[in-house]
């Protein structure tokens, strides 16, 4: 299994977790940064993403993209997507084979959404394979 496939599988394992602003534990709840944090931790347990940030912001919080991630087109499983859901709101999701996984505040939980994201993709990053 590739790094991306492992990230996507870890993201899919969070589906159903309740939505919780700045949440980092699937048992207690996750937000979009939390979904990325949990998914990335499956392959990079040393990576820490920020906890203190505004829920609505026009810019990404510092440190929200995992160290070692490289820009990409966002088309492969495991890619981290930055989406613009509103003029002053950015959102993170993980690409899967069939769509995306993201924390849906409106649904009150983490969901798997089939197909292309319903919001514009502003940027995307991919974790590379680790040597050794």
- Percent of residues in beta strands: 25-35%
The CATH topology turns out to be endopeptidase fold (from Nostoc punctiforme)
Structural class label: alpha+beta
Helix content: 10-25%
Number of strands: 8
What is the CATH class? Alpha Beta
* Number of discrete domains: 1
Gross geometry: globular
Distance between the termini: 15 Å
| Neighbour order of strands in the largest sheet | 3-8-4-5-6-7
CATH homologous superfamily name?
endopeptidase domain like (from Nostoc punctiforme)
Describe this structure in words.
With about 130 residues, the protein is α+β, with helices and mostly antiparallel strands. It has one domain (about 5-55, about 65-125): endopeptidase domain like (from Nostoc punctiforme) (endopeptidase fold (from Nostoc punctiforme), Alpha-Beta Complex). It has helices at about 5-10, 30-40; strands spanning about 25, 30, 70, 80-85, 90-95, 100-105, 110-115, 120-125. It has a six-stranded antiparallel sheet. A two-stranded antiparallel sheet has the order 1-2. A hairpin with a 3-residue loop joins strand 1 and strand 2. InterPro entries: Papain-like_cys_pep_sf. This is Peptidoglycan endopeptidase.
Question: What would a concise description of this structure say?
Answer:
With 132 residues, the chain is α+β, with helices and mostly antiparallel strands. The protein has helices spanning 3-12, 32-41, and strands spanning 24-25, 29-30, 69-71, 80-86, 89-95, 99-104, 109-114, 121-127. It has a single domain (3-56, 67-127), classed as endopeptidase domain like (from Nostoc punctiforme) (endopeptidase fold (from Nostoc punctiforme)).
């Amino acid at each position: 299994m590739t790094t991306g496939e492992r990230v996507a599988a870890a993201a899919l394992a969070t589906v159903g977790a309740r939505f919780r602003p700045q949440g980092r534990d699937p048992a207690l709840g996750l937000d979009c940064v939390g979904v990325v944090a949990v998914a990335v931790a499956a392959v990079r347990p040393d990576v820490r993403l920020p906890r203190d940030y505004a829920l609505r912001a026009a810019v990404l919080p510092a440190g929200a993209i995992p160290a070692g991630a490289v820009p990409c087109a966002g088309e492969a499983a495991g890619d981290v997507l930055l989406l613009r859901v509103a003029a002053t709101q950015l959102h993170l999701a993980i690409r899967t084979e069939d769509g995306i996984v993201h924390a849906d505040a409106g649904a009150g939980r983490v969901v798997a959404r089939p197909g292309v994201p319903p919001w514009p993709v502003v940027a995307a990053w991919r974790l590379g394979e680790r040597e050794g």
